[in-house]
């Protein structure tokens, strides 16, 4: 039986957050509802951040209230601070994520904090989440390259990943935020990170700006990673990472993994429908 590799769908959050014109809440809900029947275990659908920083995500509570929750699917939300966590909890997110950076430049630009300040800010989120029984995932951005600071030292990534794991994140997702990584830089980064966090507690989160995300996934598979974030239709980018293109497309990751004889558990026909919806949202949005 083929080994399972999980794709964590992040399109409704990472994919849509960068769209300039406000997408109707009903359209976001329709996309999530379509994705819910594809076979994912986890879908990131919301972000409880400041609406001044990311206006597109301001209706996150309404999205979580409006979706039809499928059994066995966990609906996730980003929570940068305690206030965000309280919003996510009230909206009944099944899991949340704190997000930090391996580079100081991106940390400041994205969450207006130094790396150290951001880690301190996550502690009360971890405590509140533990009390509420909500699992917390951790993101590390700019794991190889930063749009402000340039090349990132693998040991800086390992240090932040270790801190997130030690504070209780059940999994740490490693972000090539601007899609500049190569299989070699991913391998060097993972060599350092796997010394402090086991590979089965890591995920690869690769943007496809340079068209290398699938090759970077292969390099990560060789290091033992079995979870990858992707966005249906290749939606996305980050408003605080100039030049960041979309996340690697879910359907492309599914096809590559299938060709490599892994099993994703996803229904390709549903992925096609969801990719169609995602592309229509984006086209509609740039009219
Ligand atoms: P700040 O300005 O330093 O903090 O923002 P603040 O405490 O002064 O708050 C500013 C305003 O936001 C205040 O409102 C707060 O009340 C409000 P005002 O008094 O001015 O009216 N506020 C909030 N509102 C709603 N929900 C909240 C919240 N917190 C404060 N949770 C802050 C600091 C972290 C809030 C801000 O920088 C922020 O929201 N940043 C989020 C940026 C973001 O969402 N980026 C994209 C996601 S990360 C990403 O895409 C990377 C990833 O995909 C991995 C990868 O690719 O590498 C995960
Ligand atoms: Mg991202």
Description:
With 287 residues, the chain is an alpha/beta fold. It contains eleven helices and ten strands. The strands form two sheets. Strands 1-10-9-8-5-4-3-2 form an eight-stranded parallel β-sheet. A two-stranded antiparallel sheet has the order 6-7. Helix 9 links the parallel strand 9 and strand 10. Helix 2 crosses helix 3 (60-66), helix 2 (25-35) packs antiparallel against helix 11 (268-286) and helix 8 packs parallel to helix 9 (213-222). The longest helix is centred in the C-terminal third of the chain and has 19 residues, at 268-286. The chain is globular. The N and C termini lie far apart (46 Å). It holds the Pfam family HMGL-like. Keywords: Lyase, Metal-binding. Belongs to the HMG-CoA lyase family. Its EC number is 4.1.3.4.
